[in-house]
Specification:
It contains three helices and 23 strands. By secondary structure, the protein is mainly beta. Strands 5, 6, 8, 9, 10, 11 and 13 form a seven-stranded antiparallel β-sheet that branches.
Length: 341
């Protein structure tokens, strides 16, 4: 079943009003494994605008989430699109609120694929050289091996007694540099696993409770970061302009694909917050003139979208939600433009 025609042209429109896809369904039944972003993408050209189309119904209590089995309906009234969900208990319409928690604890569907970033929640983080240098480190394994995995006992040097019992085991990774001015923004702490303290001492004894790669003598122990998103984690454009770059990609691949994690040289100091959506633009492309043989820089071109999910003052981390062209390190990120393709 096909939905109504778009509310505006699909290529050159300038309005910020959400535009419905030509092939949008009139109804959709939510399934296990769906995400709000994926569902919005079935109905809208710009899924990050989904909070603008939910029907408001103040008569319904607890208007918080949608669940597998809910039936979504597309409504167009007075030239604007609206989405409604059939209330499974009363048969009425329930408002869909753009307030999504990190984990679907009660069965509600998440905003983005949580599994795509779950690894990252234990993963690379921004640290200073001083933080790494002052942190405890893996001194030895109790079996005299040089590498170890989950379940292996380790000896840790410089562990402060009673400060914490759980630690993230990390390894120094790449340097995050700002391509605009060469400033060092921090260092990547590559995840190795988790460790639980068994006994404090000189050295202390711990056990590797989880591993994502083999631990090595010299690996560092950092306090574990909390796994939490802001409760206002929903897609929206930043309030002001953003002009940043992708400075790194998790796991060091050269070409970036959907649901990969990228690091950007912009953070809360620049107005970014979790949930902000950014356009990715191919940058630094050149072509050789066939007659003069000069190398000419080409204009930046749209390549995809990402959503920011973790922010520090100068650096943020995002999940690539869609790509239309190859994406690489040092490509640009900007405030999204509705309809840009």
């Amino acid at each position: 079943m096909r939905g109504p025609a778009p509310l505006a042209p699909t290529t050159t429109y300038t309005t910020t009003a959400p535009v419905v896809r030509e092939d949008a369904p009139l109804e959709y039944v939510v399934k296990k494994g769906d995400t709000l972003w994926g569902i919005a993408n079935k109905f809208m050209l710009d899924p990050w605008q989904w909070p603008e189309v939910w029907v408001v119904n103040d008569q319904v209590r607890n208007p918080h989430r949608i669940y597998p089995g809910d039936r979504l309906r597309l409504i167009v009234a007075d030239g604007r699109a609206r989405m409604a969900v059939d209330d499974r208990t009363s048969g009425g319409l329930e408002r869909l609120s753009p307030q999504v928690r990190e984990m679907p604890l009660d069965g509600a569907i998440p905003m983005i694929p949580i599994d795509a970033i779950r690894h990252f929640l234990h993963g690379p983080r921004l640290v200073t050289n001083e933080e790494l240098g002052a942190s405890p480190y893996l001194l030895a394994f109790d079996d005299e091996h040089l590498v170890g995995g989950a379940g292996v006992n380790i000896y840790v040097e410089n562990l402060e007694p009673e400060k914490a019992y759980s630690y993230a085991v990390v390894r120094r990774g790449q340097i995050y540099k700002d391509p605009d001015n060469g400033d060092v923004l921090g260092y990547e702490a590559v995840p190795v696993g988790d460790a639980e303290v068994v006994e404090y001492g000189e050295p202390s004894t711990a056990i590797l409770s989880r591993s994502v790669r083999e631990a090595l003598v010299g690996d560092r122990l950092l306090s574990a970061e909390p796994e939490a998103f802001s409760e206002n984690f929903y897609p929206r454009a930043p309030a002001g302009p953003i002009d940043g770059s992708i400075i790194a990609v998790t796991d060091g691949v050269s070409q970036i694909g959907q649901y990969q994690i990228v690091t950007m040289n912009r953070g809360s100091n620049h107005g970014l917050e979790p949930g902000h959506v950014l356009d990715i633009l191919q940058a630094n492309r050149v072509a050789q003139d066939p007659y003069s043989f000069r190398r000419i820089k080409l204009p930046e071109s749209y390549a995809g979208k990402l959503i920011v999910f973790k922010v520090t003052p100068r650096v943020s981390f995002g999940l690539v939600m869609s790509i239309t062209e190859p994406v690489h390190q040092f490509d640009k990120v900007t405030k999204p433009v509705p309809g840009r393709r």
